[in-house]
């Protein structure tokens, strides 16, 4: 039985043209909020991991101190030491690890890990990080206003224009994050609503303890 005749080969230029046309017709347009959402995920995944490079050269024992600086549990330890968290978080084991603070962190982190909602977690982390950076930058203006005579060995270059520009830039980025993913903004506001009154109560307790200690002296 004779084989059917072979079809005429298609030139490579036509193959490339057809593939390009099919790709362009199938690919949806990438909008502004899609770009912001993608950047928000990247920002949330990698934010703060670069922070140790700012002081690693000046650290005499970077092998031990850098991993310690990347543990979230030490944030709770520092807050407890300043009277802004449970005092039990200051307990440290023989190896130098704040094990109670680590257990508290794990108790919140593990359920989030098993939830599988990594995209949402990264977006929420990005929104919280930008909000925190905005507070840091705004605190510069508050400190200048409340303590104008405070000794300042380092000057803010271009103050107040450059710090104000950075402040507005982060505020605009936060607004874009919330607009691209409103649910992360809702959760962020919920967490802030919980943390603010707790922080106020702990701050008042710390102030009262300081006044009581001053009277005893």
Question: How would you describe this structure in keywords?
Answer:
217 residues; extended; 68% helix; mainly alpha; 8 helices; single chain
Describe how the helices and strands are arranged.
Elements: H1 12-26, H2 32-46, H3 62-69, H4 73-81, H5 99-115, H6 118-146, H7 161-180, H8 182-216
Helix pairs in contact: 2-6, 2-7, 4-5, 6-7, 6-8, 7-8
Structural notes for this entry:
The protein has 217 residues and is mainly alpha-helical. The protein has a domain at 117-148 and 155-217. The protein has 8 helices and no strands. The protein is extended and about 100 Å long.
Helical content band: 55-70%
The 3D shape can be described as: extended
Q: Show unreliable segments.
A: none
Mean pLDDT: 79
Structural class: mainly alpha
**What is the terminal-to-terminal distance?**
111 Å
In short:
With 217 residues, this protein is an all-alpha fold.
